[in-house]
Amino acid sequence: MQVRPIATTDPHTGLRPGDTGTVLNVDDLGGVQTRWDNGSTLGLVPGVDEWELLCERCGDPLVPGCCVTVGDPAWEAER
Ligand SMILES: [Zn+2]
Q1: What is the largest CA-CA distance in the chain?
Q2: What separation in Å is there between the alpha carbon of 78 and the centre of ligand 1?
Q3: Domain named DUF4314: which ranges (predicted)?
Q4: Greater confidence, 36 or 66?
Q5: Phi and psi of 59, rounded to 5°?
Q6: In the chain, helix, strand, coil percent, each to 5?
Q7: Residue 56's Cα: distance from chain center in Å?
């Protein structure tokens, strides 16, 4: 699963609009541990950072039903 930051408060990441990363893990609090394309591994924090998940197939922001097949984690998250 790819993710793209909309707004982050962390000054150390060097992330810029349009950067993307790969979701490594989502913790119990909804934090998204991400390996960014620039090599950092900042976690995104709900309520602090804003981000959007990207559809693995078409690369567009993931919306319910976008290319998601039954059994995908994203599909499970919609249930
Ligand atoms: Zn799609």
Answers
A1: 38
A2: 15
A3: 3-52
A4: 36
A5: 80, 0
A6: 10, 35, 60
A7: 11
Output phi, psi for 44, to 5 deg: -90, 140
CA of 20 to the centre of ligand 1 (A): 16
| Ligand 1 center–CA 55 separation, angstroms | 5
* pLDDT tens-digit series, residues 13-47: 678 777 899 999 999 999 999 999 888 888 899 99
For residue 4, the one-letter residue type is R
Strand order in the sheet with 43-44: 43-44, 32-36, 21-26, 2-7, 50-54
Per the structure block, which two tokens stand in for 68? Answer: 């998601």
Rounded distance, CA 79 to CA 73, Å? 10
Q: Distance from the CA of 11 to the center of ligand 1, in angstroms?
A: 31
H or E, element range at 75: helix 73-78
